[in-house]
Amino acid sequence: MTYPRIALTRTCALHECIALCEFSIAVNRDEILTFLEFGREEIEKGNNLTPKRIVEGLLPEYPVSVGQRLLRRLEDLHYVERKYPKGDDSLLPDENELFNLTSRANETLESGKVYIPERQAVRISYVEDILHPTRIVGLRINTETLWDTVTRRREQRKGGEAAERDAEKLPDCLKDVMGKNVQILEGDHEYLGSTIIESIEENVILADQSDSSVRFNLTLEHDKPCVVELVTATSRHSLETSPVANLIGNYQSVLEELLKHRNLGWDEQQAAARVSFKDVNDQSRRSFIIDVSVDKPSLQSIGEFDTTKLERVPICPKTLADAKKWAEFLTMEEVTSFVGQQEFEDIATETTQRFPEFKGRLEPLPIETALGVVLQKQKHGDIDPRFWFLQAPRDLQGDEEG
């Protein structure tokens, strides 16, 4: 069975804002991984993780104060937490104070990625589209000073250009990413890839990016995971698709929803769209394949897309009446030379077998009916050689019997 490939696209605006952001970027820090691995081993052995134990196990030549400062630093990085907080965590821990590894530490040990927090004024480019689960596209450090920003905005207003607006509230779509691991697709090199957005200040400057846009490509194929691509002016990126897959359901549900836009149903048993004989051309009747154009399809769960075409969609008759007309058409298509009674019956029987869903209800086309079809055309002035291809062998057989 063959299934059509579903390819959907849409374009959306690319927005930008300037905000004070706390984020953690992935870096290569083997020494931190070493400390975390040691801490996990100690906890698994049932030992206490303390500054003193860190020094005894890893740094025996150093004083306990090194272990205290190390655990305090790991605490700032959100990799360890005090088992019994005392209220003021800015102080160095006691040499026997107990620590636990955090969930971030365990994630780091699994992935091998160490995240280091930073706090910077950044330019965040983002989209308000459900196809991009984290919404953020790019992250760039805002290198302008306050005076540079004020001067530029004043010059923009003088020249009648669109300028960044005054401070506004953080867009709701960016509030949802805080605390999450985000794949930065574009921007400053050191921030590309996996970044944890810790927090974004509530007040931001929204920049006017009305001329900027991105395109989403959503592709679904039978028995394959869906693929979502984000295409910018300079590059294309594959996005994490499990959130989208959960929203749109499986391939068949999307296909059925698209076909409904053209009043077509999908027969899962036949793996084909059900069509009326009169609604398809001769080429499609022969191939059992059509292309289906869908004007601005809308999927209930994820919105509207650009006009698309489903190519090479398998088809089958909608009703028994359609199947009879279809079988008649295909049978007559096989009459291209002189055909005897038995040969015609074999052709008609083989043709009915192309419609297994109507087995037992679809009778082979009788030769008399076929002759009637071409005679009807003769009456309208159309000369159809198939009449003689069918009639001549019958006349010859009658002469021989006579």
Describe the structure.
- By secondary structure, the chain is α+β, with helices and mostly antiparallel strands.
- It has four domains: 12-22 and 116-216, no CATH class; 28-114, Winged helix-like DNA-binding domain superfamily/Winged helix DNA-binding domain (Arc Repressor Mutant, subunit A, Orthogonal Bundle), CATH 1.10.10.10; 249-318, no CATH class; 321-401, no CATH class.
- It is built from 13 helices and 20 strands.
- It has helices at 30-44, 51-58, 64-76, 103-111, 146-158, 172-175, 242-248, 251-260, 282-287, 320-333, 341-352, 367-379, 386-401; strands spanning 6-13, 15-27, 80-82, 99-101, 114-126, 136-141, 167-169, 180-184, 186-187, 193-200, 203-207, 213-220, 227-231, 236-238, 265-267, 272-275, 289-294, 298-299, 303-304, 308-317.
- Strands 2, 5, 6, 7, 8, 9, 10 and 11 form an eight-stranded mixed sheet that branches. It has a four-stranded antiparallel sheet with strand order 1-12-13-14, with no helix packed on it. The protein has a four-stranded mixed sheet with strand order 15-16-20-17.
- Helix 10 packs across helix 11 (341-352) and helix 12 crosses helix 13.
- The longest helix has 16 residues, at 386-401.
- The radius of gyration is 35 Å and the shape is elongated.
- The relative contact order is 0.12.
- The model has no long low-confidence stretch (mean pLDDT 86).
